[in-house]
Specification:
Shape: elongated
Low-confidence stretches: none
Oligomer: single chain
Number of strands: 0
Strand content: under 5%
Distance between the termini: 39 Å
């Protein structure tokens, strides 16, 4: 399978000093500039999802739920969820 088939090419404009700093960090980890940026962005996105998940767990623990979900039918379920 072609790895590039699952990727979207994009242009990125960075201040020269930031570019040089990222290039240096990537080299220190023996990674390409592109791979370094991709991994940093992916980790940031994952961290946001983890934050939202942890908040949802805390909401449930604090009793902040939306009530029971009616699973007798799809329509009932959606209605009970306010959708």
């Amino acid at each position: 399978m072609d790895i590039a088939a699952n990727r979207k090419q994009t242009n990125l404009r960075l201040p020269v000093d930031l570019y040089e700093a990222v290039k240096s960090l990537a080299a220190s980890e023996h990674r390409s500039f592109n791979n370094f940026i991709e991994s940093v962005l992916a980790e940031r996105v994952k961290a946001q999802y983890r934050k939202e998940t942890l908040q949802a767990v805390e909401d449930i623990k604090d009793g902040k739920t939306f009530g029971p979900v009616d699973t007798t039918s799809v329509e009932s379920m959606l209605k009970s969820m306010g959708l």
